User: Which sequence fits this backbone?
């Protein structure tokens, strides 16, 4: 199949971050089986399928993303004139933190590569009705899967201290207690229902940042992470992805904020036997010569997007790409308890 024919399929304006670097690090091979654990707009899927005659499983917990993927599979069938063309892309609904069970149900127990984009899909951000954006009004939802408690449920029911802890832990917001106090006072007058209602309360008590970042940014991030158990998904997904890789297979991850990247960086370093213990005063804070040599870090430092990409796509500014390669079938070392657990 011609690579450009796949890549040129309409993508509704979605700009996948560090696309060239993703494909270079994943190294898709004909006949291989790969996983895009965060299908989103399908940008990575198109590039992977265009780079090699391989099979790609794509996981997403957003029903809208699953529908986009099935449409893409249908376009592939029409392009090739065969059912096999569409079968190269196989959509699986669910969270990537459950990838092992989801893929085993599809008859897949080993992979030649996995890519995870930990950012929120631009489709979700740009659709006000999904409730992720503090710039456009919509229901205070934030659920990626459209099931379970919403962000409105949290801000209307959590005790003040617990709400402050959520905002501080997942948003790294130093004014979390002030924000929680303001939210509790406001909900006593009327329950929160919309994004701009919440953003307005936060903006009244948080001074504008010199960087120009909206005062509501960190609080919205915190609620989104909590609603979707994003850090738990990452921890489970990393362990399962690495354990399913065949020798020579690679796990390529793009993260967008410090909480995500801290988990990814530590996991990959530990898998490669290079992680020090948390404190430099701890006598165990040294490289671990006894760690299984079953993995290696493809690059010592995280890769960042080019200046050209960030000018074209400002959402790429904070992206960091890290890659782990499996060298042997040595067992996965257990992940050390992290700050996000």
Assistant:
């Amino acid at each position: 199949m011609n690579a450009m024919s796949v890549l040129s399929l309409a993508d509704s304006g979605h700009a996948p971050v560090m696309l060239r670097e993703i494909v270079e690090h994943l190294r898709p091979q004909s006949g291989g089986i790969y996983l895009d654990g965060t299908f989103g707009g399908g940008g990575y899927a198109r590039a992977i399928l265009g780079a090699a005659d391989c099979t790609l499983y794509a996981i997403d917990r957003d029903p809208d993303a699953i529908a986009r993927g099935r449409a893409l599979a249908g376009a592939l069938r029409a392009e090739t004139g065969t059912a096999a063309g569409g079968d190269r892309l196989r959509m699986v609904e669910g969270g990537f933190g459950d990838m092992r069970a989801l893929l085993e149900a599809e008859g897949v127990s080993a992979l030649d590569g996995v890519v995870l984009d930990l950012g929120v899909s631009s489709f979700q951000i740009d659709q006000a009705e999904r409730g992720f954006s503090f710039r456009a009004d919509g229901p205070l939802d934030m659920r990626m899967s459209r099931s379970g408690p919403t962000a409105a449920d949290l801000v209307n029911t959590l005790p003040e201290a617990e709400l402050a802890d959520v905002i501080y832990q997942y948003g790294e917001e130093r004014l979390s207690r002030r924000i929680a106090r303001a939210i509790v006072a406001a909900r006593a007058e009327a329950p929160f229902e919309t994004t701009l209602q919440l953003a307005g309360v936060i903006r009244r008590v948080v001074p504008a940042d010199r960087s120009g970042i909206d005062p509501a940014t960190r609080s919205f991030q915190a609620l989104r992470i909590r609603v979707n158990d994003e850090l738990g998904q990452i921890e489970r997904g990393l362990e399962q992805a690495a354990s399913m890789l065949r020798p020579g297979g690679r796990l390529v991850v793009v993260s967008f904020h410090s909480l995500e990247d801290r988990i990814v960086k530590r996991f990959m370093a530990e898998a490669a036997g290079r992680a020090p213990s948390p404190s430099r005063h701890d006598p165990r804070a040294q490289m671990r010569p006894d760690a299984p040599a079953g993995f290696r870090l493809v690059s010592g430092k995280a890769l960042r997007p080019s200046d050209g990409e960030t000018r074209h796509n400002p959402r790429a500014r904070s992206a960091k790409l890290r890659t782990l390669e499996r060298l042997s079938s040595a067992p996965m070392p257990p992940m050390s308890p992290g700050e996000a657990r």
About this structure: The chain has two domains: 3-123+230-326, 136-228. Residues 1-13, 279-291 have pLDDT under 50 and may be disordered. The longest strand covers residues 245-255.
